[in-house]
Structure formats: structure tokens, C-alpha cells
Amino acid sequence: MTQNNTIVFRKAEIVDKDVIWKIIQQAIERRRLDGSTQWQNGYPNEQTVESDIAKNFGFVLTVGEKIAVYVALIFNDEPAYSTIDGAWLTTGEFVVIHRVAVSEDFAGQGLVKKLFDSIEEFVKSKNVASIKVDTNFDNTAMLKILEAKGYTYCGEVLLNSGMRKAFEKVLI
Hints:
single chain, alpha+beta, Aminopeptidase, 4 helices, 8 strands, about 30% helix
């Protein structure tokens, strides 16, 4: 019997919530073990996941039938991004990438890069020109991915958890 390893990017469903929450808990612990302050203050939490799914912000990358990566995609709405110490590349419509979390079962397999490829295709299909994202100064894994995927460092934004590095990629 062959294993189905088809990779699919799809909207998260409420039935996915428990698996997604487990993946986020793994990511929170991974950040802690890395010595990071990111995600160490009770956010994101289970209610965050429920809210993402209810608002159609939640997306998953599956390998076969298993959820490998979770992400929240939010169109044109990140109040913190209205003030940046620096400058965004564009002023039009955009998608914000938040809460990227990889399952321990799939860590180190390059799936976040595949996720970013899927996000870019999805965003282009919606005729949105730009993707914006922020991350903690000490999240070296995400900083490397953003560099590898061609995101431009634009400055710093203040979120509830403190100052974050902000990036943008123009697609169209």
C-alpha cells in the first residue's frame, strides 16, 4: 500500500480545531525552547484558533490526510500595520500572514516554504498585490524563510507583544 503524500492548501474547518491547537502548542513550546519571547504570553490560544476558523482566516497545508502546517491569512486588516517605523512598499490591498505553526511530525521538511508558495498563489488568485508579515527579532527560522522567499524588510511595527520586524512582498 502506498502512502498518499499529496500536499493540499485549504481553508481550515472547525473539525480541524483540536489538531491545529495541538500544532500551535508544539510551536509555542518550540519557541520557548529556542529561548524566544514570541508566543510566550498566552497568545495565540485555543480561542484564537476558533476565531480564525469562524472568520475564515484559518488555512492548513495537509500532507496526505494529515494537517502539517497552520496559518491565518487576513485580508486588509492589521491595525498595527497602520503605523510602521520604516515604510511599506505598497499602500493598496494586502494579505497579512499570522500564526504560522508546523506540526512536530513535519518539522524540518521545507513545508513552510511550500506554504508560502501556496499563499502567494492564493493571494494572486484574489488579485491582491501584496503580502505583509511580521515576526519576532529572535525567530531565526521565520527570518530565514522570509529572506529565502524574497520578502523585503520594511521596518518595525508595534504589536501587543512588542516590536516586531515587518516585511512585505509585492506579487503583482
